[in-house]
Amino acid sequence: MNHLNQYIGGKWNAAEGGRTFAVLNPATGDTWAEAPDASRGDAKAAVEAAAHAAAGWAALPHSERARLLSKAADVLEARQQDFVTALVEEAGSWIGKAMFETGYTCGIYRAAAACAYQTNGEIMPSEHGKISMAVRQPLGVVSVISPWNFPLLLTSRGIAVALAVGNSVVLKPSEETPMSGGTLIAEVLAEAGIPEGVFNVVTCSRDSVAEVGDELVSNPLVGGISFTGSTAVGRQIASRAGMLLKRACIEAGGKDALLVLDDADMSQAVNAATFGTFMHQGQICMSVERIIVDETVADEFTDRFVANTRTLRAGDPHEIGNVIGPIINGRQLRKIVDQVDDAREKGAEVLCGGTSDGPYYQPTVLSGVTRDMKVYREETFGPVAPVIRASGVDEAVEIANDSEYGLSAGIIGRDEERALDVANRLQTGMAHINDSSVNDEPHIPFGGVKNSGLGRHGGRASVETFTEQRWITLERGGRHYPPPFVEKG
Questions:
Q1: Dihedral of alpha carbons 170, 175, 179, 180, sign
Q2: What are the helix and strand counts (H, E) for the chain?
Q3: CB distance 298 to 264 below 8 Å
């Protein structure tokens, strides 16, 4: 069993009072690690350490911050197996997904290093002949609250650019994944040479998360908050941050649609639907949670999609052939079961799956899904694919937009001009033509609309998110004050 510590001010220590909580392996139910159960006092100490280090870190040349983040990418690459093991054991990641996540995340730090060179300002005209500049400066301390589903990737997305542009960071990873989403990252950054106090990690149990999270948002030394997680918690954080006039970047839930148009390449549609729905057991904010198919091709698509779904094997995520791993915890499993049972009771047909074996929920395809069903409206975060028929493009777009969420979408159709028109009509932050809704690259502006979030992560968007724009002028004698205010004699 792994015994974890917090990382505050460059030191590894236990939580206040020595409290700990158990981190469980979702596949076996065994305790994988014991982690510190932080208090508000621990969170306050981490913020103070970050605030103490902030000015020195911001004063470093941008090239030095870039060098250290590039070094972090190299260290992460060398320690890939440590992260793969942790992702499988505490996050229930299929080993293929864990390998992808670790390799991809190296690119996040390298892209962040490039962002250190992109805190660009501008010179503006002045009617008084001033040198008039708009510049970007770091916020100071940024709190990052990260999720369990892609803990390494999504934590790194929250912290890397924030560090690159000169902020110090306090991270609270999910209580489900404090190692792969927190303490291992601290080890990497420390080995890379990030100065003490610039990056800090506090871990806590679900019972302590309210007080720890509140401290990370409301502490007056915190200048900005990056949150990835549920819409309910994201709303609370955005509301609290807004009341305190603090910058908040919120990436929340989704109910993403894949639209299969009447001219779709059927292989492309089936592959995009299978990957988008079932990658990581559907536990991705961008997962395909509604497949909207033109009625003229619905029978062919459904038959082929069900056949492909039946080839997916659930089981021990250490085995490369088991692409469907465990659901993260019993609470989430019960939510999936409830949505499928509700759909059955209201007339939906289960074409495959619809059952669980311990922590594994079989990949499931539903037909006859209607708007009164929970699986139509609520985020599922599980391996369940509702297939919904539409009569033409207009109805498909209307169904896709009939959601409180608006994160991502996929559109499958050979007529690219028409598909682009569909993408422009969708109420989402992102849309992908002839591809799945599950898409990401380190430098793109990632985020949603409606209840899927506020603000954007990634590349130049993150530079803007984690910096404050300031106006600075240099007066050179061209401005004249009104005579009554000018020194006499």
A1: negative
A2: 15, 25
A3: no
Beta strands per DSSP E along 213-272: 222-228, 247-251, 256-260
Token pair recorded at residue 388: 């919904």
Secondary element (H or E) of residue 104: helix 95-115
Catalytic residues, by residue number, are 251, 285
CB-based contacts of 444, cutoff 8 Å, min separation 6: 458, 459, 461
On whether both 64 and 114 belong to a single domain, the answer is: yes
Q: Which long-range contacts (CB under 8 A, 24 or more apart) does 241-247 make?
A: 241/217, 244/217, 244/218, 246/217, 246/222, 247/139, 247/223, 247/465, 247/466, 247/468
Tokens of 63: 């090239």
Domain assignment of residue 80, yes or no: yes
What pLDDT digit, counting tens, does each position of 272-306 carry? Answer: 999 999 999 999 999 999 999 999 999 999 999 99
How far, CA to CA in Å, does 442 sit from each of 112, 171, 411? 8, 19, 22
Tokens matching residue 34:
């014991």
* Helix, strand and coil in the chain, % to nearest 5: 40, 20, 35
What's the confidence (pLDDT) of residue 1?
Answer: 84
Mention every residue, 6+ apart, whose C-beta is less than 8 A from residue 315: 322, 324, 360
Q: For residues 5 and 37, is the Cβ–Cβ distance under 8 A?
A: no
Please indicate, yes or no, whether residues 206 and 288 belong to a single structural domain of this protein.
Answer: no
pTM score > 0.70 for this model? yes
Model confidence pLDDT, tens digit, residues 148-165: 999 999 999 999 999 999
Q: Would you state the structure tokens that stand for residue 417, as one six-digit string?
A: 């001009």
Shared domain for 339 and 190, answered yes or no, is no
Q: How would you classify the pairing of strands 409-412 and 256-260?
A: parallel
* Spatial CA neighbour of 254 closest among 279, 281, 287: 287
Q: What is the 3-state secondary structure (H, E, C) of 5-29?
A: CEEECCEEECCHHHCEEEEECCCCC
Please state, in angstroms and rounded to a whole number, the distance separating the CA atoms of residues 321 and 273.
Answer: 19
The structural domain count of the chain equals 2
